[in-house]
Amino acid sequence: MKNYKHYRLIILFCLCFLAVANVNAQSDWQLTAKENESLSPFLFDDDMILEGKISYENSCTSCHGMPGQADYTPMAPSPGDPASDQFQLQSDGALFHKIKTGRGTMPKFEDVFADDETWNLVAFIRSFNENYKQPVPDLGGIEIPEYSMKLAFDENIDKLVVKVFAKELPQSDVSVSAFVKGSFGKYLIGKAQTDELGIAYVDVDPTLPGDAEGKLDIMVKVTKGYGLAKMNANMIMAKPTVRKSAIEGRHIWSNDKNAPIWLKVSFFITIFGVWLVLFFIVIGLRGINKANKEEE
Amino acid sequence: MNDTITKENLNDDQIDQDLLKNVNWGNKFKLWLAFLSVSLIICLYFYYQQLQHGLGVTGLHDYVSWGIYISNFVFFVATSLIGMLISSVLGLMNVHWVKPLARIAELVAVAFAIVAGLIIITDMGRPDRLLNVFMHGRVQSPIVWDIAVIVTYVAISVLLLYIPLLPDIALCRDKLKNVPKWQQKMYKILALGWSGKTRQFKIMNNYTRILLILIIPIALSIHTVTSWLFAMTLRSGWDSPIFGPYFVSGAFVAGCAAVIITMFFFQRNFKLQKYITTDHFDRMGKLLVLVALVYVYFNINEIIVPGYKANTADAKHVDEMLYGHESLMFWLVQLGGLVIPFLLILFKPMRKPLPLTLISIVVLAGAWFKRVLIVVPTQLSPYYPIQNVPEKWNHYSPTVPEIAITLASFILVLIIMTVLAKLFPVISIWEVKEEMNHNKELA
């Protein structure tokens, strides 16, 4: 009986230790000032939010639930809802580094996401905060440039030509990426940098299927630092393609009306042929009664 | 000389008397029919349940959507195929001993084929939408082909039963004066004014011959198309180019067994020992060995070819069969229901009526379970693994209503065969007379 008491004491002690450790774990997620103050090198935009959402759904939902729904997993310490103040009152840098390093049951995502992908996640979490305004570092009086661009397609060399301007001046060293817009997302055509004339050449695969005239819906994105611009265009740059329905023509997998001729013919000739013979026999059976009268 | 015919000299009157004896409504028959009807009504209550609550009362689910209903359907189509082999193939080859058995084989064929069509309806959750299959069916679908050929096969089988029956119906009309009035009237209408004229025999023989030839491709296609319901689907275990002949050869095994059992019951109950002789059983036993050997050959192919190549899905399927979850049923069916029976029948004493009938019952039961083995396990090993579903969807076991409805199909077959056997002679009287006279001439 005495031993039994000891056990109880030990268990009680363990429980106390766990509770204290727990409180410690929650309060003790210290970051350096530098980490806390670090800022995103990108301006959060819809693309970043969308990509952040995909990463979030793959890696975060299982514990944190969907932001704003408070449907996180009940665990201790609580993972919490990323749309709540508990998260939103923290700085961008804090969120960024906490995702990166993890702690306790929160895994570290340093090796899972590249920095820009982690910023996508921060952008996604921030999209649930209407009052949020992205802090931008002191650029020392330099304005964030407003880019504009002109697009052309050079069919002799199969290249998309992008000329980038800011205040009507060509801009060099700007990153240009071009995408085809599909029904379910973007398909990257290529990336390039503008030269000193502000021109970037993106290789286009000439066998890409376009519409009947060879037109494609494209999106071109130019970025440099915090400067960003996008442009949508519909231009002739691909192979003219007449699209066919997958069940067009006569196929086994098509609807009844478009059944292969050979199948229809053989099926109906066989079935109606046999039934014709049966019909002929049933009619012919009257001959048995007739035979009576003929010989009488 | 045909030694399956009794050595006794029987005159025509004696033959008439012997073979018309079964056409009556005795008390034994009434009791039997009442028993069948009550059982059927009990089973139909379960079908009523299924109509009310849908297929949820069965063990079927998203993965195994074809359970014992479809296995049973395949079994019934298989069994009905024997009509073609016995009356048509052997008949056209002038195999004389088979003549007294032709009608029994046709009876089996008609009863099983009709009920096969009904079984399909029991597998439908909404039988009230049956007409949609005809209205909106695609000609590319093997299901549409199956419906078309089965309806055609039933029609031909009924005609093939009816037309050679004409002289015997006329005999019933002339000789049976103590049967109810409606029955006399029925014989009168069905006999079509038959009076045994040469020209009438000529018409009958012509039509029978056309039908006997026509039924061969149709019978082959009903079971080939039934096998295509599976083989045209890309699934391990079904995706096999030999499924057509594999099913047809299996059908003959089931059919032969069914005919032997039917022969035995007719011989004993109707005292037909002089017409269905021990020698008939002996020869049917040999026929069963032949078809069983062909079937064993196809079975070996069906297992060893995918088993040797062992691509992932097929390997899993073969493994399940040989050593896995299905192995007990598999080996029971293959050894107990096929190999051991045919080895036993190789010995002459085993081809005596009683032992042969007992063996046939085992073979027939094996054939039924064989169909379950063809239909069900494949659905439990799909290419895309079964996951994130309720645990019970990983298995299939039929429920009580399902088993009762399946039993109902057997009861229905028995009812059809009993009633037909009580309305008409089960052995072709005019053919037996012809055969006897032929033998006398030779002697």
Write the layout of secondary structure elements.
The complex is a heterodimer of chains A (296) and B (443).
Chain A: H1 2-27, H2 33-37, H3 46-59, H4 61-64, H5 85-88, H6 92-101, H7 115-126, E1 147-154, E2 159-166, E3 169-170, E4 175-182, E5 185-193, E6 199-203, E7 215-224, E8 227-236, H8 261-284, H9 286-295
Antiparallel strand pairs in A: 1-2, 2-3, 2-6, 4-5, 4-7, 7-8
Chain B: H1 12-20, H2 27-53, H3 68-80, H4 82-92, H5 99-122, H6 130-136, H7 142-162, H8 166-175, H9 181-190, H10 198-231, H11 243-269, H12 278-309, H13 312-322, H14 327-345, H15 353-380, H16 400-423, H17 429-442
Helix pairs in contact in B: 2-16, 3-5, 3-11, 3-15, 4-5, 4-10, 5-7, 5-11, 5-16, 7-10, 8-9, 10-11, 11-12, 11-15, 12-13, 12-14, 13-14, 14-15
Protein architecture, described:
The complex is a heterodimer of chains A (296) and B (443). Chain A has helices spanning 2-27, 33-37, 46-59, 61-64, 85-88, 92-101, 115-126, 261-284, 286-295, and strands at 147-154, 159-166, 169-170, 175-182, 185-193, 199-203, 215-224, 227-236. With 296 residues, chain A is α+β, with helices and mostly antiparallel strands. Among the domains of chain A are: 31-126, Cytochrome Bc1 Complex, Chain D, domain 2; 147-236, Immunoglobulin-like. In chain A, a hairpin with a 2-residue loop joins strand 7 (215-224) and strand 8. Chain A starts with a helix and ends with a helix. The mean pLDDT of chain A is 86. Chain B has helices spanning 12-20, 27-53, 68-80, 82-92, 99-122, 130-136, 142-162, 166-175, 181-190, 198-231, 243-269, 278-309, 312-322, 327-345, 353-380, 400-423, 429-442. Chain B is globular and about 75 Å long. The chains are: A alpha+beta (296), B mainly alpha (443). Chain A binds chain B through residues 252-256, 259-260, 263-264, 267-268, 271, 274-275, 277-278, 281-282, 284-289, 291-292, 294-295, and chain B through 136-140, 145, 148-149, 152, 155-156, 159, 163, 166, 192-195, 197, 199-200, 203-204, 207, 210-211, 214, 218.
